[in-house]
Amino acid sequence: MSKAIDNLLSILDLETIEVNLFRGRSPQDRWQRVFGGQVIGQALVAACRTVEQRTLHSMHCYFLLGGDPRVPIVYEVDRIRDGRSFTTRGVSAIQHGRPIFSLTASFHVDETGLEHIQPPPDVPQPEDLPSQSDIDPALLARMPENQRRYYSTAQPIEIKAVDYQHYFSRYFAREPTTLPFCVWIRAANRLPDDLAIHQCVLAYASDMTLLDVTLFPHGRSVIEPTIQSASLDHAMWFYGDFRADEWLLYVQDTPVAGGARGLSRGNIYTRDGRLVASVAQEGMIRLRPDLAHAP
Q1: Positions marked active-site
Q2: Where are the domains of the chain?
Q3: Which fold has domain 3-110+125-291?
Q4: Is 93 exposed, middle or buried (0-12, 13-18, 19+ CB in 10 A)?
């Protein structure tokens, strides 16, 4: 198992403090705040630890305050409901005595019923695309230091974008009605044979590129120093079994932006075209020209 995946699984392996209470830590990678996907993944782990014989099918969450990576995060689970078919859990993430994140997750017994899917777009396969290690050095040079350091080191999630042009030119604006932004994602090494782990890892990965999509119609990117961005809320729905350590196509678009906020959506497919998850997120995308010359 690669060191990056081992570190991710270690981060998701919460310490049990007491019944319904868990503690998680953050990697010491010098980010100013905790990565949102990490908090989502850890909160889902806490919820899953209190449910048996039912599968996570949806989650809705809000980012309330920026997380402090220097101190642990305490996750408190509220066992809201245990019904005949559905189980509901609430999770609060707490730091410095205040909630920084809240999540509601729903679990469902296995049932059969009507089925249909919206098929994925026809895009190049991951083997035909450059890896993150092949990203043009010119792109790395445009990134803030913390992002440049991220892309220059081994990460637990592999990402292969169908194109990177929006990072190079403000004039490469992508109309919301055109082909959505597509990336292939997978865990960098094999994960345990536990669907709950694969769901938590995919939830972690789902926050990695989604916010940026709200800026693409304007030819902008979160790597610009004059863009202040943050995830505000995040929702996810799961359909059937999948493996997060196999290539998954993440198809993302943005229907609207306004008031310094943008909405982005995503569908996640297996290589054979099976839809396994859907995502929606609203994020803050605030223009800050005063930061143009900030150190």
Answers
A1: 207, 231, 281
A2: 3-110+125-291
A3: Porin (2.40.160)
A4: buried
